[in-house]
Amino acid sequence: MRMSIITLVAGAILSASFTAGAAEPVADAAAIVKAANWDAMETITVELTEHSFTPQDLKLKAGQPYRLVIKNVGQKDHYYTAAEFFKSVAWRKVQTPKPHGGEIKAPYFTAVEAYKNGGAVELFFVTVNKGVFDVICTIEDHKDQGMDGKIVVE
Ligand SMILES: [Cu+2]
């Protein structure tokens, strides 16, 4: 009896923290990435400059493999920060463009920075969770200047 009360309380605390806080990273991400048809991958390029994302908003399909290229064509460094979105997809890898650079594999991360004058980062993932996610540049006042968008996964 005492045990079940403790379990109930623990469950309530857990569910409260899930609603209030960030979503958990996608479970089974490795299996989702492995099962995906990468020949059907769609490439989308977002250009960053002073002070905008082009396109500003993205509309993505759940369950689709993507290569999202974040390219800074401006003259300042910029971020493409979408922490909740980055937790809601199954990550294959992040890379800087070939033939130079390299790649990173990780369960998830919070922000991407592309350096001024042509810096680019390529994100390879499969969309999993549906929702509307914020994306901003976190440098100084760039968000208020217009570097503020949405990523919609349907
Ligand atoms: Cu910026």
Automatic annotation (TrEMBL):
It comes from the Bacteria. Residues 30-153 form the EfeO-type cupredoxin-like domain. Residues 1-22 form the signal peptide. Keywords: Copper, Metal-binding, Signal. Pfam families: Cupredoxin_1. InterPro entries: Cu-binding_ET (IPR050845), Cupredoxin (IPR008972), EfeO_Cupredoxin (IPR028096). This is EfeO-type cupredoxin-like domain-containing protein. It comes from Aromatoleum toluolicum.
